[in-house]
Design a protein that fits this description.
The protein is of the alpha+beta class and 140 residues long. It is built from two helices and seven strands; from the N terminus they run αβββββαββ.
């Protein structure tokens, strides 16, 4: 015979009460920090220029203004064509086998990147170039 409980919405007596422990607070803190840390990436405005790097060394600096223009960059596998202008920057053609960089499309947001691993080329979109005498950080 089943004994009906007087309060069907209350938890059973055998269920332990869960309290927040140290690990719970640490997990919550990491999740909160991750959420706040990604906020600047989501709110970044359009970039003013794009830097093209080949094996980590600067090859070209592209101004993302005006009419669309095309530039050819010699990568490790062959030539890569980039189109850039007011709409941003994109890879028109690349010699890599999977064409991930080509399928990525237009990139304009500051902090965004197009990476072609087989060709060792990175296109990084950034804000306006800063004056060399301006501080790039403040420490208290």
């Amino acid at each position: 015979m089943i004994d009906p409980s007087p309060h069907p919405s209350s938890p059973p007596e055998w269920a332990p009460r869960r309290r927040w422990g140290v690990l719970d607070f640490l997990i919550a803190l990491v999740l909160l920090g991750t959420g706040i840390g990604t906020l600047p990436l989501l709110t970044a405005g359009p970039g003013k220029e794009a830097r093209v790097l080949l094996e980590g060394k600067p090859v070209a600096r592209l101004r993302l203004t005006g009419e669309a223009r095309i530039i050819t960059v010699a990568g490790k596998l062959g030539d890569m064509q980039l189109q850039y202008g007011e709409s941003g920057v994109r890879v028109l053609s690349a010699p890599c086998p999977q064409q991930i960089c080509v399928r990525q499309g237009w990139v304009k947001r500051s902090g965004s990147r197009i990476i072609c691993l087989p060709s060792h080329i990175v296109v990084a979109v950034g804000g306006k170039a800063q004056d060399a005498s301006a501080p790039d950080g403040v420490t208290f």
